Amino acid sequence: MINWMTGDVLSITAFIGVLVAFVMTCILTSKLNNYLPKDIGRDFAHNGKLSAGKPRGAGIIFVSVFTVAALLFGEISPETVIYLLLVFVEMLTGFMDDAADEPWNEYKKGILDFMVAAVVALNYIHFNGTRIEIATLDIDVVLHPVVFFVLTIILVWGAINVTNCSDGVDGLSGTLTIITLMTIYVVNEVTLKPQGLYSEFSYIILLFVVCILGYLWYNATPSKLMMGDAGSRAMGIFISIAVLKTGSPFLFLLVAAVLIVDGGLGLIKVALLRFLKIHIFKNTTMPLHDHVRKTIGWSNTQTVFRFAIIQIVISIATVYMLII
After folding, report:
1. Is the Cβ–Cβ distance between 179 and 311 less than 8 Å?
2. Rounded distance, CA 65 to CA 227, Å?
3. What is the band of 198 on the pLDDT scale with cuts at 50, 70, 90?
4. Residue 222: HSE in the Cβ half-sphere, 13 Å Cα cutoff
């Protein structure tokens, strides 16, 4: 009876936590958006000037609500507390960039991302070890700590930056992040619960998702405000942590496939041109969401829906592949 009551109370608390996180994100976004820095428009983005004057940096609101909600309603371990702190730090660095008169140097942001990624890697190794599962092949591998450390830094740094680069169309990066995180949540349910295991991080994922939904209430086309680096960089690091906690980090390539292609191709194009003087995708505007709008003629809404549909199909195929 005591166990049943304990479980019942926890379920009710979790239910309330989800509602509170969503409602508070909506309320605070509505009340505080006028205090956010204003966007100046982006010359490099397709129709980038249309965003001029809109509040940006709204990530500081929904990430802050998420952090407080997770601490109040989640089952928090020392490992998770450190992750929450790192997500918050990544949000703060992004917000300082959003609020700056001059955008931060990309090398400065890259170094900060590297430092945060290194702490994520050390934290994960300390609490979980270096065993990973290649889920699609049902293979377990124990990596050398140095190898695991380096690969995790690449994962975290990549997730932060591809998510950041995908933030250029109203509702796009938030929608794709939700699909990615809910796929990871389902993967946890499929792979952990049948074995009698429970991941405390699953509920944290749900809290993050509903906070993004609260933000999207105002960011859906035509948007009233934008998340800025404060939101996109926090979403990126959270995705990397969530996929790490599945024990199958290579699933990132599938559950975040559209984010990787949309934001990652642009990163590759710029890196090759800058460091090796190799010019690829000459006739393709990057990020890819700009190409489909500028060259193919998709509207903002079509871009969000079609990119989301592609990721949903990939996610469904991934989950089914893990079940059989």
Report:
1. yes
2. 14
3. low
4. 4
